[in-house]
Model the fold of this input.
Amino acid sequence: MFINRLQELEVLEKFYKSSESQFLIIYGRRRIGKTELLKYFARDKKHLFYSADLSSEQEQLRQFTEKLYSLTGDAFLKNHSFPGWENLLNYLFDHVVKKIPLIIFDEFPYLCMSNKALPSILQKIWDEKGKDSGVFLVLCGSYMSFMEKEVLSSKSPLYGRRTGQMILQPFRYKVLKEFFPLYTEEEQVMVYSIGGGTPAYLRRFNDRYSISENVKEQILAKNSLLYKEPRFLLMEELREPSIYFSILKAIASGKTRLNEISQETGLEDRHKVNKYLTVLRELNIIKREVPVTEEKPDRSRKGIYLLEDPFFRFWFRFVYPNLSYLEEDEIDYVWEKKINPYLNDFTGFIFEDICRQKLIELNKIDMLPFKAEKIGRWWDGKEEIDIMATGEKGEYLFCECKWSVKHVGVSVYEKLQEKSNRISENRKKYLCFFSRSGFSDELKKLSRDMGNIYLFDYY
Done:
């Protein structure tokens, strides 16, 4: 079942309907849904979809030729063997693209592993034949560093040939209602805190079963797909998975600053550690945050690193520390004693991110009291604010996000008011509250009377 990706489909359709040749690069992390998106887009169009693997160049050429023969029925291709990619691609652009204008290479990096000259070969043929052929050529890949360095960068032979690129991101929280219509909003938030927005992870859950049943069967069971998913993903994507794993362990344990991560992992070269962190950021596994009021965030010394992918955060918090129990099939014990008592607190942090997503959407449609330039967290040595938005005229919006079973009352308002005064005592400001369980009547009345207090029941 294909879910959402409406914006991405609209972009693809726009490229497809163009009268000019198009050369699109699509990339993103594994399990993010690139292949499903392209298959759904191509389903009602004449197309050639080739998904590469790790087999030899000769085997890849043979498979591609068979695919061509099955689509065209050209007798020339029956039992034919192309000596190399240049010959095959020349045939493709000479005889196929006029009849089949949509050509998709899925997992393009695998093809390049078997022949490193392939980008140069494709560049030559694109310049000679492709750019004026009317073809819609798509190169898709999961190895993000490869796609950015070997396909998109200025040093790549293909540089300047693409007509567009698309990086596929995880789903936002609001899409979960399409995955889990039988779950309540509260349950959808909890699922998002566990699986994030990665489609392949979300598809493992079934809303006909409880969250506990899904977690036990799809994550904690040692024969399940997600049991050691972070480890496998790092091994597939990265050259030094053990180093990246140690960095993620350090961040998950609360070592969030560069020097702390360096000390915890034993990697003394901070410059090298910073490079590893950059790769993890490019994979959307971690993120770097600075207080939203920092004028030069890239140079700020207040930056901290956090696990951005909710599933990685869940896995390192609850699965990795309990692998010895899980290897002995003590699944119920791990759930009852190690996960369930702490799941609400764990979800609260992700709830802040969900609320931030909501504010960003409201800002796009001008539904905030002012147009926000920046939306993020704020902290200093003593206090922190869940979300803060800043406006171009000096306005501030301060937000508190409460994943609590109690109503949010005036005491929470007073505390946020006090914290906000540390930053903007003389500036125009607004206060905003998100609550899992609603608000007290007193705070509702205060919101109506004051005019600068915004209350959001849930998301």
